[in-house]
Amino acid sequence: MSRSAHSGAAVASGTLPVERLERLWGWGRTSSATSYVYRPSTPEGVLQVFELARAHGATVGLRGAGQSYGDAALNAGNICLDLSCMKRILAWDPGQGIIHVEPGVTIEQLWQYAIEDGWWPAVVPGTMFATLGGCLGMNVHGKNNWAVGPIGEHVVEFDLLLPNGEVRRCSREHEAELFHAAIGGFGMLGCFLSVTLRLKKVHSGLLDVEPFVARSLDEMIEVFEARMRTADHLVGWVDGLAQGGQVGRGVVHQANHLGPGDDPEPARTLRVDRQTLPATLMGVVPASVVWRLMRPFMNEIGLRLINELRYRWSRASGRRVYRQSHAAPVPELRAGVARCAGLQDAAGARAAERPPGTARRPQAPPRGPLPHVPCRRRVLAGARVQGHRAEPPATLGARRRVRRAGPRGRGPPLLREGQHDDRGDGAPRLWRGTDRAFPRAQEALRPRGAARDGPVPAAP
Ligand SMILES: Cc1cc2nc3c(=O)[nH]c(=O)nc-3n(C[C@H](O)[C@H](O)[C@H](O)COP(=O)(O)OP(=O)(O)OC[C@H]3O[C@@H](n4cnc5c(N)ncnc54)[C@H](O)[C@@H]3O)c2cc1C
């Protein structure tokens, strides 16, 4: 399962269908790669992709939700096995808080499913869009790492598909070495097909939150060390632009779970729809437009001003304890902040594009194993979701060939020597440009919004 994840590597030769070619990005938008992308929705489909890879001598790179900042979920020129369509909850024991899920289930799906029974994932990274497979692959940490360890500590067992096609059930008792190596193994040892996880019991949908202002980095570290004994979660905001003796100043937030009986109405606060903050700021400004208001401040002077205001406001507010839901901030705010920073959070951005007042209100999921929900049709990330166009082909010759092939989406398929056209909707044009320019020309000709969720072709 070796991978070449840097962008620009040559596309694997052979007869993998060109319709599968897709350009994928890391979350930080600093790296991208064109791969043959497969999104199976069953374990059999995953096995078929491995067989296909073996038959074509291609490598397989695994991808969950692609929330890794860099290139961890990219596999240039080879197969990218995207597990995001394997998102069924297979079994749930609300008495013990033990859940058995497919690897594409996200952290958000997990808590939405379990919270009304009084359970919450023991470890939650800073994004809720990450999948369980990706979280295990990276052994992610939460804001309580010193107390409960990373997510691997809460895994009961998993099924791992090895590159040779074998499926092994691993736990601390059986296949212990593989169990410990695959957690945090970057998907290099095999593919998680299902995961059994132990969740944390919660007695309320709220947490007690207390802020502490730190005037310097030393003070911030002191606050952390002092609060670790009593806190369930600790997170620090650091003013990265402060200078002199104020370097590292900021605010530490401590959050603690409520004990049994501390919340007078646990049944209400544990409801899924109580877990999101209001879709407006101060009841007036729609959260979805906050990023527009913040845009003028996205420069050094503006950020200094915001940091200064935030720091002073925190000092003026003092150490008041308040109660907050587990799941905050709202996706719209997250998306706005990401946009301001020039980053793209596709799922959040889609939410932010909804008209004001129609913000997502998650519905309580149905009890019992979830029915299979067909995967959304994907579009080329650069073409629609982020509103960017695919880059034009690099060379003049390549551009001319693309122009000759007709308007975008209507030209015949562009193939490399040895590749076959299985669309049968026009005589293919043979690509004679460089390896580097080929994926771009391919993208430029791809029909907009073309479906990529077709069945996995059987290995020849
Ligand atoms: C806003 C934001 C905040 C974050 N905060 C935190 C944080 O607080 N703590 C933290 O630890 N991380 C954090 N992260 C990083 C993120 O949680 C991890 O990168 C996580 O692994 C992403 O999960 P994913 O499903 O998107 O996986 P991907 O990014 O798609 O893949 C990650 C790795 O897992 C492997 N993988 C994916 N699926 C499988 C599978 N089924 N079987 C085997 N391997 C697989 C991939 O090959 C890859 O190596 C944050 C990321 C963002 C964008």
Q: Enumerate the distinct ligands.
A: flavin-adenine dinucleotide
Mean pLDDT level: 78
Find the count of extended strands (DSSP E, 2+ residues): 19
Could you name the ranges where pLDDT drops below 50 across 5 or more consecutive residues?
Answer: 1-12, 330-395, 405-412, 420-428, 447-460
End-to-end separation: 20 Å
Radius of gyration: 24 Å
Q: Using the alpha-carbon principal axes, give the shape.
A: globular
Percent range for β-strand residues: 15-25%
Strand pairing plus helix content: what structural class?
A: alpha+beta
Percent helix, as a range, is: 10-25%
Largest sheet: 5 strands, antiparallel
Spatial strand sequence of the major β-sheet: 5-6-10-8-9
Count up the helices: 13
The count of domains is: 3
Question: Describe it for me?
Answer:
This protein has about 450 residues and is an alpha+beta fold. The protein has 3 domains: about 20-85 and about 375-445, Uridine Diphospho-n-acetylenolpyruvylglucosamine Reductase, domain 2 (2-Layer Sandwich); about 90-200, Uridine Diphospho-n-acetylenolpyruvylglucosamine Reductase, domain 3; about 205-350, no CATH class. It is about 25% helix and about 20% strand. The chain contains 13 helices and 19 strands. Strands 5-6-10-8-9 form a 5-stranded antiparallel beta sheet. A 4-stranded mixed beta sheet has the order 1-2-4-3, with helices on one face. Helix 12 runs parallel beside helix 13. The protein is globular.
